[in-house]
Amino acid sequence: MVMIHVLLVFFLAVVSFWICKLNVILSGFCSVGYIGEFEFVDDHRAGKIVVELNGRLNKCGVISPRFDVGVKEIETWTARLLPSRQVSS
């Protein structure tokens, strides 16, 4: 019984940590003007986030290459795969 309680407390701490980080990211998008308001909805399951889109985000995706990359090679792969910072300026 104690082990279940410890695991539950750990799980809730991890979830609250990531919700806090997601709140910071969405607040940044909101302050720049990429999205409108956002709201966390607790549906007693996994939860939902309702985001008001205003048309500034046209295409979103994930870059997920299937390569084994070492710690020392991360900067090289980042420069190779991510678009330039001056693309939209």
What does it look like?
The protein is an alpha+beta fold and 89 residues long. It has two helices and two strands; from the N terminus they run αββα. It has helices at 2-32, 74-81; strands at 35-41, 48-53. The chain has a two-stranded antiparallel ribbon with strand order 1-2. A hairpin with a 6-residue loop joins strand 1 and strand 2. The radius of gyration is 18 Å and the shape is flat. The model has no long low-confidence stretch (mean pLDDT 77).
Order of helices and strands: HEEH
- How would you classify the helix and strand content by structural class? alpha+beta
What is the arithmetic mean of pLDDT?
77
* Rg, alpha carbons: 18 Å
Main β-sheet description? 2 strands, antiparallel
Number of helices: 2
Write down the overall geometry.
flat
Number of strands: 2
Which range best describes the helical content: under 10%, 10-25%, 25-40%, 40-55%, 55-70% or over 70%? 40-55%
Unreliable stretches: none
List keywords for this structure.
alpha+beta, 2 helices, 15% strand
Brief characterization of the structure:
The chain has 89 residues and is of the alpha+beta class. It has two helices and two strands, in the order αββα.
Topology, please?
Layout: H1 2-32, E1 35-41, E2 48-53, H2 74-81
Antiparallel strand pairs: 1-2
